[in-house]
Every structure is written in structure tokens, then in C-alpha cells.
Amino acid sequence: MSQARVVVDGATAGEIGAGLLVLVCAERGDGEARADKLLSKVLKLRIFADEAGKMNRSVQDTAGGLLLVSQFTLAADTSGGNRPSFTNAAAPDEGRRLYEYFVDQARKSHPDVQTGRFAAHMQVQLVNDGPVTIPLRT
User: Fold this and answer.
1) Is 72 a catalytic residue?
2) 138 is annotated as an active-site residue
3) Which of 72, 102, 114, 115 is catalytic?
4) pTM exceeds 0.70
């Protein structure tokens, strides 16, 4: 991804150049150990091109940015009809706690971390370079 930005109430909440836009969803039963495992995967995932054009470098190798955006709708269950159910998502207080934990841990491990705003109506803008979009579950 070559750039991403999150706008809340007309103002930019977070913005990065090249790097990763990570949509983060806490589900029922998730905890800090799962968040740690996901962050490790995000930081080490080799999806950026090396000198030969092969996907062989991580966001840490490239010193790319991380834009972390809370997104409970990733927990949507559409198997029961046309209206999604979000019962698999963590309760709002727990979702906020885990998202903030994830952000704090990311900031301890990576120099360029930006965020959206938890539970806000956000406009997420992305210029996907590739495109490469990879779902990660732990």
C-alpha cells in the first residue's frame, strides 16, 4: 500500500505513506495473547517486494508505517439472512481495551504507528499498490 488515511469529523486522525493499513477486530474470547500473536504476524509478514521484485520484506524491513483502525464489522456473520449479525464481536468495552492494548504494543515495537478512533464514524482512504490484501486470523 502506498498511502492510507483515516478522517474523523472532517479532520485527519491518522495517516501514513507506504506501509500497512490494518483493520483490527476483537472477537469474543480474544485476549492479549492473541493480540500479541497477531501483532507479531503483522510486523513480520513478508509482503513487500525486495530488489528482485519478490514479496520478501516485512513492514519492519521497509520501515513502513502502520495505520491501525478498529473495525468490529469484520466479525459479521451473514449466514442467517441478509442482515449481518455482530454477536461474534467482542463487547464494546472489551473491544476498546484490546484495540488500545494492540496499539500500545505496536508503538513499543514499531516507530511509525498511526490510528483511527475507536467507535467513531471513520472515512478510511487507501491507495492499494498491487493490490495486496491479506486477512490474518490467529
Assistant:
1) yes
2) no
3) 72
4) yes
3-state DSSP helix/strand/coil percent for the chain, to nearest 5? 30, 30, 40
Is residue 5 a contact partner of residue 17, using CB atoms and an 8 Å limit?
Answer: no
pLDDT digits (tens, 9 = 90+) for 104-138: 999 999 999 999 999 999 999 999 988 889 999 88
Q: Are strands 122-127 and 113-115 parallel, antiparallel or unpaired?
A: unpaired
Q: Does residue 71 carry a catalytic annotation?
A: yes
Catalytic residue among 3, 60, 62, 71: 71
Domains in the chain, ordered, with CATH?
3-127 (3.50.80.10)
pLDDT tens track for 8-60 = 999 999 999 999 999 999 999 999 999 999 999 999 999 999 999 999 999 99
Catalytically annotated residue among 12, 73, 87, 125: 73
